[in-house]
Amino acid sequence: MSQQYPDRIETQVNVEMLVKPIGISFELRISGNATIGSAAAIRKSRELLAVRDLMTRLGVPDERIRIDSVTFASGEGWLSGSNAQIALTLREVPLEVAAEALGNLSVIKGVSLVDMHREYGDLREERDSLLRRGVIESKRQANIIAAAAELPILSVYVMTQKWMEPDNQAMSRSYEATRGARLSKSAAVNPDELKGYELFEHHESRLSLNLRMEFRVGEFQKMDR
């Protein structure tokens, strides 16, 4: 005997909202000299200390400063010093001080910007809100179809979610392009006065949900003859 699959009504809805990042993460490359190739020498690096002092002044806690990697290139002799390359990440620098941080980092000798990324956190409340809206809209559409077809809705058969995350792609290329365009239109302004401060960016992005639901329905009611 073949299996009888239930008749179903399918709905697909898209819901979205604008979300704002909680901060900007900076990926930096620090170049400096270390007399001894050790972790202690790295912690005393003049350039790294300058970055830490800057973050402290801006209210960014020390735990958001992360050393990702350290590379040493020794000089002719071990005691002659080593060139140290430090890959550093500054996580979740608040938006209100991000431009100031960028400007100050740009004038610290030996510090270069590799990239920037938006950080949004887990967005738990926003996701819950979108999910509720999606389910309500799906049920509304299913009820309209069921009422028109005179079918009773029995239960939810299946539900799938597809999330489209907000934009957190690399920002450095668009930042450089924006800054270059601004400088080309500001010939009367000293370029050094603008260096590092052109963080003109619309920070809001979209969090989207595609929700697909199938509702089990009963048999058609008897039609009047």
Describe this structure in words.
With 225 residues, this protein is α+β, with helices and mostly antiparallel strands. The protein has 2 domains: 1-21 and 121-225, Protein of unknown function (DUF541), domain 1 (Translation Initiation Factor IF3, 2-Layer Sandwich); 23-119, Alpha-Beta Plaits (2-Layer Sandwich). It is 32% helix and 36% strand. It has helices spanning 39-43, 46-57, 95-105, 124-149, 172-184, 191-194; strands at residues 8-19, 23-34, 65-74, 82-93, 111-119, 153-164, 205-217. It has a 4-stranded antiparallel β-sheet with strand order 3-4-2-5. A 3-stranded antiparallel β-sheet has the order 1-7-6, with helices on one face. The longest helix is centred in the middle third of the chain and has 26 residues, at 124-149. It is rod-shaped and about 85 Å long. The model is unreliable at 177-188 and 191-198 (pLDDT under 50).
The description of the largest β-sheet is: 4 strands, antiparallel
CATH superfamily of the largest domain: Protein of unknown function (DUF541), domain 1
Radius of gyration: 28 Å
Helix fraction? 25-40%
pLDDT under 50 segments (min length 5)? 177-188, 191-198
Count of separate structural domains: 2
pLDDT averaged residue by residue: 80
Shape: rod-shaped
Judging by the overall fold, what is the CATH architecture of the largest domain? 2-Layer Sandwich
Summing up helix and strand content along with how strands pair, one would put the structural category as alpha+beta
Sketch the topology as an H/E string, one letter per element: EEHHEEHEHEHHE
Q: Which strand order do you get reading across the main beta sheet?
A: 3-4-2-5
Distance between the termini: 33 Å
Q: Specify the CATH class of the largest domain.
A: Alpha Beta
Number of strands: 7
Number of helices: 6
Beta-strand percentage range: 35-45%
At the fold tier of CATH, the topology name of the largest domain is Translation Initiation Factor IF3
